[in-house]
Amino acid sequence: MNTVIDAHNVSKVYNRETVPVYAINNVHLHIEKGEFAALVGPSGSGKTTLLNLIGGLDKPDTGSVFINELDITKLSANKLIDFRLKNIGFVFQSFNLIPVLTAKENVELIMQLQGIEKSVRDVRVQQLFRQIEMSDKMDVRPAQLSGGQQQRVAVARALASRPKFVLADEPTANLDSKSAFNLLDIMTKLNKEEHITFLFSTHDQRVIERARRIITLVDGRIVSDTAAVSTRHEKADV
Q1: What is the mean pLDDT of the segment spanning 77-106?
Q2: What is the model's pTM?
Q3: What is the homologous superfamily of the domain 3-96+164-237 according to CATH?
């Protein structure tokens, strides 16, 4: 296995000039290629902050974040934007689809920004919509899709550029149970069959039961990091 994410002594501090508040406090974290891992912990434990630091959406006050051995904390703002575009897929709690674009256009947008030619984009989009089982919804706008369908489109968008890994911040929080399980089925399948690396921030037990590694944060620190023996879903398949 190859190390995809390597965070060294990472801290994020607020109110530095008065009473410092550590959102993330001296965290060390390594994520290997092909992992299906979850950051868990109570609200305010630092899950989303750590995900944002790993994804280059925010910079740590101390420490470094290496993605495939590149220290992204040393990149300029423009180079960091370009790096995220080419290397990291994001799935957000609120979907973040562009309402005036169709599902297909939302997924295709990342590849357009990368300058990928249309014929290649078309093949990739068709493949992704088959994978998320929504080939019949490609020309539909987000407002006409259910929450679960919108989140599946968001997953396809995250995968469009063939990223090194996908960061998913509470991806099931706004979904009903059926939609959440369908989404998790798709992401689990992508992880197992295509070895796509997923790192979740979640408090959702449905996600935690699927994760094969559980990293628990409390007050900005990692207090446990364990490999799950098996998930409920995998037990049911035995």
Answers
A1: 94
A2: 0.89
A3: P-loop containing nucleotide triphosphate hydrolases (3.40.50.300)
